[in-house]
């Protein structure tokens, strides 16, 4: 494995109901490229993962509370999906502010499946081109996004998005590539 993300810290914002594969695979790709990842969430302890939203799929330990996290702590942000996960995040003031601040910082953000719901709540999709799971596309359009349905991965500046689990190979590759491009242009 290459180490193009060595020295990069990536926050993974997730809550109970996160789709396990959408957290595991991108995190593995990021760590394989040398990044350090931390799960940032709403409560301490562990978050419950799901498979296809319906089946329990184990837990992930929480590294930091979003209420205690700052954009300055991370070089990039990953927003995995699962229906319940972003639905909880978008109802939490600290989580929404964290995402809003990340988008305002210009640092890279990657989101898959239902993950862009939190971006919409943070008013961070207006004028952006992105993709998502089909059921939230109307929400994204109503929030001012240009939604693309027929691409595995859409890159719009700092933002990388994908439609769902079937797109994970392309998503993971694009995330590592875009995060590396941003990482190498960062000072220090």
From TrEMBL:
InterPro entries: C56_PfpI-like, Class_I_gatase-like, DJ-1/PfpI. Coiled coil: none annotated. It comes from the Bacteria. It holds the Pfam family DJ-1_PfpI. Keywords: Glutamine amidotransferase. Residues 8-178 form the DJ-1/PfpI domain. PANTHER family: DJ-1 PROTEIN, PROTEINASE. Belongs to the peptidase C56 family. NCBIfam families: PfpI. This is Type 1 glutamine amidotransferase domain-containing protein. It comes from Streptomyces kebangsaanensis. The lineage of its organism: Bacteria, Bacillati, Actinomycetota, Actinomycetes, Kitasatosporales.
